[in-house]
Amino acid sequence: MKFLCLLAFACTSAAWAQSAAPLPPAGQPPAAAALDAPKIPNLPDETVLAILGDGSKLTMGEFKKIYAVLPQGNQQMALRNPEQFLHQWEMLRRLTVMADQHKLAEESPYKEALEYARRNVLAQAAINDGVNSLSIDPSEIVKAYDSDKKKYTQVKIKAIYIAFNDDPSAAVAPGKKSLTEAEARAKAEKLLAALRGGADFAKAAKENSDDETSRDKGGDFASLRFSDNIPDLFRAAVFNLKQGEITEPLKQPNGFYLLLADEVKVRPLSEVRDDIYNELRNTQSTDWIEKIDKASKVEIVNQEFIGKKPAQVK
After folding, report:
1. Which pLDDT score, from 0 to 100, does residue 130 have?
2. N or C of the chain: less Cβ packing under 10 Å?
């Protein structure tokens, strides 16, 4: 069992090295782990944790460095059973010494595997270093904000939902007749005309809407931001409304919506600054990677290798 655990530890670590999964940029915390995940002991870096087989000492600071490059699953294993982890680490060290004594690093396929892993780790290091060196000038954030304030608009809407079902036997609610699509559209358009003529939206919602939740609140539906995950039809309609305006009937699979822009406001720069910064940084990072990608050129001199038949010599 210990041998199998050691293999799992070693293989997963090698898979990490070959996967080139991005490391968190300097100063940025890693993704949040499960709430019940064990924590690293709060010990000074100089604390000696164990004396290894060759007499060398493993300190807390050295353990942290090892821990930082482990895959998440191995990190949790190391903290849940630190005694087993330390034993596995010593076994890996002993096996590495044996491999060095037999000069296995100079033999195939180990030599090529080591070189592949090395290139992956260093390539990821170069990406992290390059991306972390990118900077966003504060003026760029202000410029991005001023150039497209619609992206930072927030609209509080009221809604009336008119459901339809072309199955005549179906009912929207007990005692209420189901409308066909054509009937629902006609009802929505009639309501829209009345509302634009001055009818009270909240009253109309309570009397006509088939959405129980918003109906009971006088049509109060939601506060939407441009970046929210909403149907494109809604986004296009809602964020072109001025305060007090109502959309045309918006068709959804089983009904039509009338949406009132009850309140329209642009979120202040102070509230969206971090979002803009992250967006600009992501754009810069993508551009940086794409430049390297375009500069990486290969001349294929053997067409058979890539699955193409060589040209026939006449």
Report:
1. 95
2. C
Distance CA 298, CA 174 (A): 69
User: Has residue 45 been placed in a domain?
Assistant: yes
Give domain status of residue 142, yes or no.
Answer: no
Diameter of the chain measured on Cα atoms? 91
Number of compact structural domains in the chain: 2
Tokens 């009132």 belong to 260
Residues 162 and 91 in one domain: no
Pairing assessment for the beta strands 176-177 and 153-163 based on DSSP bridges: unpaired
Least confident of 15-19, 45-49, 109-113: 15-19
pLDDT for 227: 86
- Report the distance separating Cα 87 and Cα 90, nearest Å: 5
- Quick one: which H or E segment has residue 155? strand 153-163
Residue 312 CA, distance from chain mean position:
50
CA distances from 75 to 11, 37, 38, 44, 80 (A): 14, 10, 9, 19, 9
